[in-house]
Design brief:
This protein is mostly helical. The chain has seven helices and no strands. It has one domain. The longest helix has 25 residues. The radius of gyration is 18 Å and the shape is elongated.
Length: 147
C-alpha cells in the first residue's frame, strides 16, 4: 500500500504545475465573472458596495471603495488567470476578501454567509506562497522562477 501511495504522489508531484494552471484558470475566471458586473455597474453599483466600509468606521468615498473592490476581483482575477504579477494580485484579492469576510461578520450575517469569503482569502493566501507555476506569464517573463 505504501508503494502505491508513493507512486501516486510521485506522479502528482510531477504534475504540480499543471495543477496550478487549473487552479489559476478556474479561480481567476470565477473572480473575473464576479468582478466584471461590479465594474460595469458604474457608480450605482460601486456606492452601495463601498458603503459596507461603514462597519469599519469609514464613511467617505464609498464609490471609490466599491470600484476598488470590483477592480480587485475583475482585474485581479485576470492577472491570476494569466499568472502575471500573480503574487501581487493574490495579495489584493486576499485583502479584498478578508475585508468582505470581516464586514459580513460585523453586519451580523453570520459565519455561514461569511465563510465563502474567508475560504477564498485562505486560497489566495496560500497562492502567495506557492506561486503561479511554470505555465504562467510570470515564469515566461522571468518574474517568478525557482532560484
Amino acid at each position: 500500500m505504501k508503494k502505491i501511495i508513493e507512486a501516486i504522489n510521485t506522479v502528482l508531484f510531477m504534475q504540480k504545475d499543471a495543477g496550478l494552471l487549473v487552479f489559476r484558470i478556474i479561480i481567476g475566471g470565477m473572480f473575473m465573472w464576479h468582478g466584471l458586473p461590479k465594474i460595469l455597474g458604474g457608480p450605482e453599483t460601486w456606492i452601495p458596495l463601498g458603503q459596507t466600509m461603514k462597519v469599519f468606521g469609514i464613511y467617505f468615498a464609498p464609490g471609490f471603495f466599491g470600484f476598488m473592490s470590483g477592480a480587485s476581483e475583475c482585474f485581479g482575477g485576470l492577472l491570476i488567470f494569466l499568472g502575471l504579477f500573480y503574487r501581487v494580485a493574490a495579495v489584493f484579492l486576499c485583502i479584498n476578501l478578508l475585508t468582505a469576510f470581516s464586514s459580513q461578520l460585523l453586519q451580523g450575517k453570520g459565519l455561514f454567509k461569511a465563510s465563502q469569503s474567508f475560504e477564498d482569502a485562505a486560497s489566495f493566501l496560500a497562492a502567495i506562497f506557492v506561486g503561479p507555476g511554470r505555465y504562467s506569464l510570470d515564469h515566461y517573463l522571468g518574474l517568478d522562477r525557482d532560484k
